[in-house]
Amino acid sequence: MTVPQLPLNSGTTIPQLGFGVFKVDPTDAQRVIEDAFEVGYRHIDTAAAYNNEQQVGAAIAASGIPRDELFITTKLANPDHKSGEIIPAFDASLEKLGLGYVDLYLIHWPMPENELYVQAWRQLERFYGEHSARAIGVSNFLVPHLEALLSATDIVPAVNQVELHPIFQQRELRDFATAHGIVIESWGPLGQGKYDLFGMTAIQTIASAHGKSPAQIVIRWHLQAGNIVIPKSNSRDRMKENFEVFDFEISPDEFATMTSLDEDHRVGGNPAEVN
Ligand code: NAD
Fold first, then answer.
1. Most distant CA pair in the chain: distance in Å?
2. Ligand 1 atom nearest to CA at 232
3. Separation of 234 CA from ligand 1 center, angstroms?
4. pLDDT tens, 175-197?
5. Is residue 110 within 6 Å of ligand 1 at its C-beta?
6. Mean pLDDT for the chain?
7. Which one, 156, 195, 242, 263, has the greatest CB density within 10 A?
8. Is this structure's pTM higher than 0.85?
9. Which residue out of 25, 190, 236 has the highest number of ligand 1 atoms within 8 Å of its CB and is therefore the one to mutate?
10. Are 156 and 9 in contact (CB under 8 A)?
11. Which CATH architecture has domain 5-259?
């Protein structure tokens, strides 16, 4: 199965389907990521805050996969936005990952009360200029945070990684991102198991029509919406299931049905309030 590549404003590309490792316990993480590589994933989404960069690095080293075939994302943790903290935090991530560069480095949350994300972004611009981050982006940025960044800095984020799934579709934020050439990356793409997306009749009906699982229908909807999608699972069978989404398409009517499921219902934190 060939995963499509989406162009980023950095001139590089990103595999549209990746593997997320939030809440993958460090004791399990190397095995889980090695399984993901064997299944075919080449794009891994981690973060300093996930406490498993070391195991991502060990799995990369054990895999023997050439570096240029991998796409590795990590993120600046919330306590590290101060100017003296960012370079050591980034260096520590690179060291744990065993990498000379990351493919994408994100500010994990804007933490608006701190008012530090604009100056943190200027340091990410330097990492990008030094080629130690091939692309730079943000995560959990709402439109006002993006506006503040765009008006005060030079480089437009390549990516905004945000909570996004059929019952929380973030239309306004996506339109803003599209207008500025920012690619949207869906986190919690399956609703994090906190909302029974797979039990929804509309999704089950589409799944039956294609002989696919509800999870595969939801992932297919993200892909056809043009978003990057990074489902997580510790189970190799589910990793495979989530990867087997390139041999079918949902129809325009089915896509419209999925799009009509939006309830503006977050399952994660509101970035305006996470400080
Ligand atoms: P997710 O929506 O990927 O859901 C994961 C849950 O779904 C797990 O419980 C898993 O067992 C279950 N699941 C996976 N595949 C399944 C299948 N085929 N059938 C049935 N159940 C299945 O949630 P997530 O892990 O929170 O999000 C994905 C990734 O997004 C994370 O791993 C992380 O990399 C990223 N993320 C980023 C942020 C951020 O603030 N930037 C926040 C949360 C997650």
1. 55
2. 3
3. 10
4. 999 999 999 999 999 999 999 99
5. no
6. 97
7. 242
8. yes
9. 190
10. yes
11. Alpha-Beta Barrel (3.20)
